[in-house]
Amino acid sequence: MPYTLYRWDDPGAPAPLNGLSNANTLINVLDACLVTGYGAKAPAGWSKPFTAANQAAFRQGAGSHGFYLHLDASPLWHDKVRGYESMTAIDAGTNPFPTVAQRSDLVAGRSSSSDGSGRPWLVAADARRFFLWTNANGNLAQGLGTTMHQPTLFFGDLESPNAGDVFNTLISGGISNLNSTYLGYAQNNASNAEYMARNFAGAVGSVAVMKGTHIPYQSTAYIGAVTSAPAFPDPVTGGLLLSPIEVFDVSGFVSRGVLPWIWAPGHNLPGSPGDVLTGVNGPLAGKRLMLLDVAAASSRARIALEIP
Radius of gyration of the chain from Cα atoms? Predict the structure, then answer.
């Protein structure tokens, strides 16, 4: 489905991210991308119903489950994040995911240091979900082209053939700090940093989830870091082998859908971050895809993001 790609270097874009506390830079970025728009970029169609000092709550837009994402920008380096099924005030929500007991320190990273140095960011968003990527250890001149400390945040509804699954809203962040970001962690491993509002049966209560790819020779838990994989470019197609990324309930392994726009390369860290490639077969034929690293240097993962 179409979405809008927002970048730190767009004309009129909000300021780059930084590591200062109480800076609200991540809130400002999401506000501009999701709610107000900037320059020639229209907003993705979300609302921001509640705010307070260094806090904001964003609500999904048309066609979504209508859930809320709360952010607290007061820590250094990162924002604390949590989803809610409903909210009545900035500090009052029902059915959180994750619960505090499950994870008190789920975060979205901004920077690798507690200073005001600008960090590049990228947001892919529509009215139902968004994906945020940050070059937390890089600088504005490096842009997309570094390979470590690149935290991510995903919040929103998965793509699913089951229209009756009205609780498959995922939050995927990091633990405690930007060194633990789990969007790139896959292949039937529970990450402890990814949660859904409810299980497949709709029972009240946040549930942990895991991801998997359709790559049979996946030899590690990290997306795009498949050490026993075919060479890149693929010797048969001359291109990039890709798999959807599927999300499952930890209990029962029930599929809840796939991550939109994001694909798993079937190679070992193919290309370089920021490379733009063209799909050669299947549903991605002719589509452009951008390679991004999405983990810390010690546990690198590489995804392919469709470019609208």
Answer: 18
130 φ/ψ angles, rounded to the nearest 5 degrees = -145, 155
Among all chains, which residue has been given the structure tokens 């959180």? 96
Q: What is d(CA 26, CA 297) in angstroms, rounded to the nearest whole number?
A: 23
What residues contact residue 154 under an 8 Å CB cut-off, 6+ apart?
A: 129, 130, 131, 132, 170, 171, 172, 173, 183, 259
Which of 230, 256, 271 is closest to 145 using CA atoms?
A: 271
Q: How far apart are the two ends of the chain, measured CA to CA in Å?
A: 9
**CA 53 → CA 17, 28, 47, 97, distances in Å?**
18, 13, 18, 22
Question: pLDDT per position in the chain (308 positions), as tens?
Answer: 589 999 999 999 999 999 998 888 999 999 999 999 999 999 999 999 999 999 999 999 999 999 999 999 999 888 999 999 999 999 999 999 999 999 998 999 898 888 899 999 999 999 999 999 999 888 999 999 888 778 899 999 999 989 999 999 999 998 876 555 678 886 666 668 899 999 999 999 999 999 988 888 877 778 898 888 889 999 988 889 999 999 999 888 899 999 999 999 999 999 999 999 988 777 888 899 999 998 766 778 899 999 99
The reported pTM is 0.96
Residue 171 · residue 194 · CB < 8 Å: yes
Sign of CA dihedral 298, 15, 155, 214: negative
Sign of torsion over alpha carbons 68, 69, 73, 75: positive
